[in-house]
Hints:
The chain is α+β, with helices and mostly antiparallel strands. It has helices at 2-25, 72-77; strands at 37-40, 47-50, 66-69, 81-82.
Amino acid sequence: MIQERTMQDLWAVVEELRQRVEELENGGPPAPVPPDYIASAKSNRKTFHRRGCRFTGRFVNLAGGFQEFESRDTAVAAGLTPCKSCGA
Length: 88
Ligand SMILES: [Zn+2]
């Protein structure tokens, strides 16, 4: 069963890459700019981070594990505190 799951995961990756190649061959869609600031959706510590901050590693890959902010101001307006580590 474990192997079956692994194969499914691999095929999902292959399919994703195939679509990506197709997009690139077609000139590619305009790359959506992801919001630069994110915060854990579950943590009680209301801190937001720059994307790529090492402290986002725990939640950034979880579905629904984080919320995104278009700008620093938006995050601050939502009552969040900038992370000191990444200088958000
Ligand atoms: Zn941070």
